[in-house]
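Intended use. Records like the one below are meant for learning the mapping from a protein sequence to its folded structure. Do not use them to infer anything beyond what is encoded.
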Amino acid sequence: MELTAVLTPAEEGGYVAYNPETGTTTQGESVEEALTNLKEATALYLSEFPLPRSGHPLVTMFDVPAHA
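Structure written out for the chain above:
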């Protein structure tokens, strides 16, 4: 099963990894560690709460004007 991973830098260092299909979130010191941890957390989640096949979410970016 192919799922989506969204990684963002964590304030304390490393990365936060999020899977939008399941809502699972984890972190790691490197991209590789964060992805490994996300795969494990998501597999545990899916063992209890299987997902219906509904396709991938649309992931995009947008700008918000900065306050002056």
